[in-house]
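Record type: monomer structure entry
Structure origin: computed from sequence
Chain ID: A
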Amino acid sequence: MKTTISLIFMFFSLITVAQTATEKDEELLKQLIVDSFQDILSDNKKEKLGDYYTGDFVLLENGEVWDLEVIKGYMAQAAAMDNLPVRINSFSFIDIKIYGDAAWLAYHNTARYEMDEQVLGRMTWLESANAVRTATGWKLELLHSTIVAMEEEEE
């Protein structure tokens, strides 16, 4: 009887540990998305690309293929602009699936653009991401982004 109770206790302990690890990874993956958009697209920190993206990262942006070189070019153009609007990101996560050292995420991404405390516009995307666990933590290897039309968004 003691053996059976011990085995049941061990089983539930393992489930709890696995669930806690999964929840921690889910939070890390959400933070990866939030931080990468803030540092790269809002704050234009080119030096942070390697913190968030794998070397072979690809962004499928509304029908276009962007690799790291394209993203660096986009960032250089943004850095050269005067009076660039402030981009404020928000996310609504739909689902996260983790398979060992690989994960995918689905979420809504909204960017609000402001200048001098005035809202200039807003864009919303439906996005998915693939991430891999590396020696330094989770990194994105693929983002797929589709603009959500305003009439779809308001429904």
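Annotation 1: Residues 2-154 form a domain with the Nuclear Transport Factor 2; Chain: A, fold (CATH 3.10.450.50).
Annotation 2: The chain has one domain: 2-154.
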